[in-house]
């Protein structure tokens, strides 16, 4: 497994110790046309849960009727933490069924307003350091569609307190998001079974 060794020529002159550098918050973007962007983000969240970190997942596009397998797993992990203290607390929120802090029925919500409300809530949580890791799933789309101001996102991420990690997923990530990120992965599709007419399968797509 990689040990995180750094070329001495690339060590920043920031006055930080190795331990302090290990505690720096990570901003990550998973983008590109290939499959696996959300899956990789949920994998990072699972690692974080195992370390006792507070996990917050916010899905910005998926329908409330779309039950991804990871949602069930993480809700069970949250229950396990509540029952035994193992791992960390988990919150999972999905636009379309109504954000949990919103009392309005999600099915009739205007999606642009939903997305804007969701982002404002995440900003509040970042300011209060509510979670240790945030998964903003399919977050690039409301930015692309103009529902969320990318400049506000960049400023918030750059100025967030503490060591909160933020992972954003979705195609066509805004260049400003890529610029502010510490970790950017582009998923490139080489082949996909749907290209030849095959359907999505349980355990693979959901």
How would you describe this structure to a colleague?
The protein has 206 residues and is α/β, with parallel strands linked by helices. The chain has a domain of 114 residues: Rossmann fold. It has a 6-stranded parallel sheet. Strand 2, helix 3 and strand 3 form a beta-alpha-beta unit. The longest helix has 18 residues. It is globular, with a radius of gyration of 18 Å. The two termini are 29 Å apart.
Short description:
Helices cover 36% and strands 14% of the residues. By secondary structure, it is α/β, with parallel strands linked by helices.
Task: Please outline the helices and strands.
Elements: H1 18-22, E1 27-31, H2 37-50, E2 55-59, H3 69-84, E3 90-94, H4 111-128, E4 133-137, H5 140-144, H6 150-159, E5 165-169, H7 175-180, E6 183-186
Parallel strand pairs: 1-5, 1-6, 2-3, 2-4, 4-5
Protein name: Cob(I)yrinic acid a,c-diamide adenosyltransferase
Keywords: Transferase
Pfam families: CobA_CobO_BtuR
The major beta sheet can be summarized as: 6 strands, parallel
Per DSSP, what share of the residues sits in E-state strands of 2 or more residues? 5-15%
CATH class of the domain at 42-155: Alpha Beta
**Tell me, what's the shape?**
globular
Number of strands: 6
Q: What is the count of DSSP helices, taking H or I runs of 4+ residues? A: 7
* Name of the CATH superfamily of the domain at 42-155: P-loop containing nucleotide triphosphate hydrolases
- Please state how the strands of the largest beta sheet are arranged side by side: 3-2-4-5-1-6
Secondary structure: helix percent: 25-40%
Helix and strand run: HEHEHEHEHHEHE
Distance between the termini: 29 Å
What is the rounded Rg? 18 Å
Summed over residues and divided by their number, the pLDDT gives a mean of 86
Runs with pLDDT <50, length 5+?
none
Specify the structural class: alpha/beta
What is the name of the CATH architecture of the domain at 42-155?
3-Layer(aba) Sandwich
CATH topology of the domain at 42-155: Rossmann fold
């Amino acid at each position: 497994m990689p040990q995180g060794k750094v070329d001495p020529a690339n060590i920043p002159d920031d006055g930080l110790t190795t331990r302090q550098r290990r505690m720096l918050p990570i901003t990550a973007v998973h983008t590109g046309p290939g499959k696996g962007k959300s899956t990789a983000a949920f994998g990072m969240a699972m690692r974080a849960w195992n370390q006792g970190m507070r996990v917050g997942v916010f899905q910005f596009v998926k329908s409330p009727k779309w039950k991804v397998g990871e949602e069930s797993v993480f809700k069970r992990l949250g229950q396990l933490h509540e029952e035994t203290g193992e791992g960390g607390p988990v919150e999972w929120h999905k636009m379309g069924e109504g954000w949990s802090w919103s009392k309005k029925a999600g099915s009739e919500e205007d999606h642009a307003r939903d997305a804007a409300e969701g982002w404002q809530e995440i900003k509040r949580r970042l300011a209060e350091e509510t979670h240790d890791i945030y998964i903003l799933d399919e977050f690039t789309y409301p930015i692309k569609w103009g529902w969320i101001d990318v400049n506000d996102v960049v400023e918030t991420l750059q100025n967030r307190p503490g060591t909160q990690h933020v992972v954003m997923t979705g195609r066509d990530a805004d260049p400003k998001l890529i610029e502010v990120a510490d970790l950017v992965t582009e998923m490139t599709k080489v082949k996909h079974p749907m290209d030849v007419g095959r359907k999505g399968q349980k355990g693979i797509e959901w």
